[in-house]
Specification:
Blueprint (H helix, E strand, L loop, with lengths): L1 E7 L8 E7 L10 E6 L10 E3 L1 H9 L3 E2 L1 H15 L2
Parallel strand pairs: 1-5
Antiparallel strand pairs: 1-2, 2-3, 3-4
């Protein structure tokens, strides 16, 4: 089972997350298939705090990948703030 989820790569008290495609059986910070974007919650008021590749998300979604709850929220924010402008 393939899953789209977050991988934490930030330091202590400075979270930074990569949005990755990973096999569900691997650990959170284990080997992943592809990195499709990032999310930086510290810079919420900066323009580039979310970066996604929507083509790759659609591709993996069509292959049957599940999307985690938090990533769904991030995609919704990304579409609202960046696509419609």
């Amino acid at each position: 089972m393939i899953r789209i989820r977050l991988k934490r790569v930030g330091t202590k008290n400075k979270p930074f997350f990569q949005i990755i495609i990973i096999d569900k059986r691997n650990s959170n910070n284990g080997k992943f298939i592809e990195r499709i974007g990032y999310f930086n919650p510290i810079n919420k008021y900066n323009y580039n705090y979310i970066n996604l590749c929507e083509k790759r998300i659609k591709y993996w979604k069509n292959l049957g990948a599940n999307i985690s709850y938090r990533v769904k929220k991030i995609i919704k924010i990304f579409k609202k703030n960046y696509i419609n402008k």
